[in-house]
Amino acid sequence: MKYPVKLVLLFLAIFQLVQAQQSISSARVEFIFLSKDVDGTIEGFQSTSKIDPDDLSSSVLAGSVEVSTIKTGNFLRDWHLKSSKYFDDEEYPLITFKSEEISPTEKGIKVVGIIKIKGISKTLTWQFDKDGNTLRGAASLYCSDFNINIKKRREDNKVEINLILELK
Asked: Domains of the chain by range and CATH?
C-alpha cells in the first residue's frame, strides 16, 4: 500500500511544479522611433519561455518575431523598412531575444538578455510590471547599433519597445 501512496504524492509534486511554471499564450510588440515620431507593431511571436513566479532565477524568457510583419500604418514605409537597406527581412527574417538573467525588482521584474537583429547581438534590459497574468515590459535600443541607420546621429536612432505578454 505504501508504494501507490508514494507514486500519487510524486505525481502531485510533479503536477504542482509544472503548474508553477507559466508559458506565454500571446504577445504584442509595439515600438516608437522617437526622432520621427513613428510607431508600429511587429508580430509573428514565437516563444519557448518558462516563467516561474516563485523562482525567477530558473525562469527563461526567449522568443522571436518576424521582421516581415513590421507595420507602421504606411505601406511604403513598411516595405522600405523590410528592404536590404534597413532590416533586410530576406537575409534576416527573425529578431530574437533570450534572457540571461531574470530578477525581481521593487516594481516588477528585470530581464537582461541578448537581442539579435540583422545577425548582430547586443545586451538588452527589460523592465516588466506584472498585473495578474499579464507582463508589460519596456526597453529601448538604438537601431543604428544593428546597422539600421535611419538618421545619421546615434542618439537620433533611439527606439522604445513595449512588450505585452499574456501568461498561461
From this structure: 22-167 (2.40.128.110)
